[in-house]
Amino acid sequence: MGTFVPKSLSDDDWFRILNTTETVAERVSFLEFVAVKQRREEKDRMKKNEKFERGEMGYGPDLYQLINNPMRNRKKINITQGSRVLSTLRVDEAPKIAFDLQYMFKEKPRIQSELGNQMQYVISVSLLCIASIFFLEKIGWKCVGFYGGQYTHQTVLPDFTNKSVKETFPDKDVVYISRHARDVLDGPLDVGAIALCASMDTAREALGAARRGRMRAVRLPIQRYVKWQKGPMYLPFPNIMRIFREVHVNGGDWESALLKNISKRHLLTPEEQETQAQLERTNRRKTRLREKTELIRTIQEATGHL
């Protein structure tokens, strides 16, 4: 069978097949056209139904995203969680992670929603390792999610506190991550705690918070190990959490951790992106053509028609 097969044929479709097509190839091409049209209409209908059921909220890039509840299907991920915990226990104690939410509610509503989604993903990532996470500013629990559910007592979730980073970790060496900092965080993660500012950091909020809290501001060694080609040099917080975990487990290999957790679109030049996209389009076109040719030959051999 071909890649595109129509689910049904109307009277008009049958009329056009019997009266406007002469060869098997023409009929197969027409059936593919009907299938593509039906698939497009079905997708449009599904999008409309989703918006209606969710109060006209769109889903997709820069819009609302469906977050899977990490408290469901626990048996399915127990093995994964256990292996992550074991691999973390085999190395030294993991640094504590603190998210500073003081600037989150000064952002625009759309940015707040995006940051809230990222915090939920951060919780999902933290469930797969033993890194301790703290949220500064109690008011943020409603926007972060998970904390208003019915079964939250079954899962170990990050703690909220109104204390500052220094007050939360008085006996630890604390660093504050800021992409505008001069110092670079490199080598093994031998710090006691890492603070992250829950904002887009467009106005250097993280650097200001680090200076007011008298903490050492550092930036990730992105420019040292990665050649950033395109787009703003901004990493979502779930990616940063995965980078921290991999660096902690592998003993300080930032290059491999960064390459695994940075989108390829940031690392390719425009020429490389165009070449890769053109190669993918060519391969898809060749695959469809080969399947179509095989289908036409099979029909011709079975029916004896050309």
Give an overview in words.
The protein is α/β, with parallel strands linked by helices and 306 residues long. It folds into 2 domains: 11-58 and 268-303, no CATH class; 74-266, Alpha/beta knot. It has helices at 11-20, 24-53, 74-89, 109-126, 141-144, 165-168, 205-212, 222-225, 237-250, 254-261, 270-303; strands at 96-100, 133-136, 159-161, 174-177, 183-184, 193-197, 216-219. Strand 2 (133-136), helix 5 (141-144) and strand 3 (159-161) form a beta-alpha-beta unit. The mean pLDDT is 78.
Structure in a nutshell:
This protein has 306 residues and is of the alpha/beta class.
Core attributes:
306 residues; alpha/beta; Alpha/beta knot; 7-stranded parallel sheet; 11 helices; 49% helix; MT_TRM10-typ; tRNA binding; methyltransferase; S-adenosyl-L-methionine
Number of individual domains: 2
N-to-C SSE string, H for helix and E for strand = HHHEHEHEHEEEHEHHHH
CATH architecture of the largest domain: 3-Layer(aba) Sandwich
The total of helices stands at: 11
Q: Can you give the helix content as a percent range?
A: 40-55%
Gyration radius, to the nearest Å?
26 Å
Kindly estimate the percentage of residues that lie in beta strands according to DSSP: 5-15%
| Major sheet summary line | 7 strands, parallel
Q: Indicate the CATH class of the largest domain.
A: Alpha Beta
Number of strands: 7
